[in-house]
Amino acid sequence: MLCEETRQSLSSYIDDCVTLPTRVAVDEHLDRCPVCRAEFAELRSLTRNLGLISRPLPPSDLVATINDALIIEAAARRQQPDPSFMNRVVRFLEPRLMPYTIGSFASVLLFTMMFAALRPHFVALREASMQNTVIIVDTGFDLNQPVSPEAFAASRAPFAAQSPSLNPGGALAALTRAYASPRPSNRDSDDMIVVADVFSNGSASLADVVQAPRNRRMLDEFESALRQDAAFVPASMDRRPDTMRVVFAVQKVDVDDRNY
Ligand SMILES: [Zn+2]
Question: pLDDT tens for residues 181-204?
Answer without folding.
Answer: 665 555 567 788 889 898 988 888
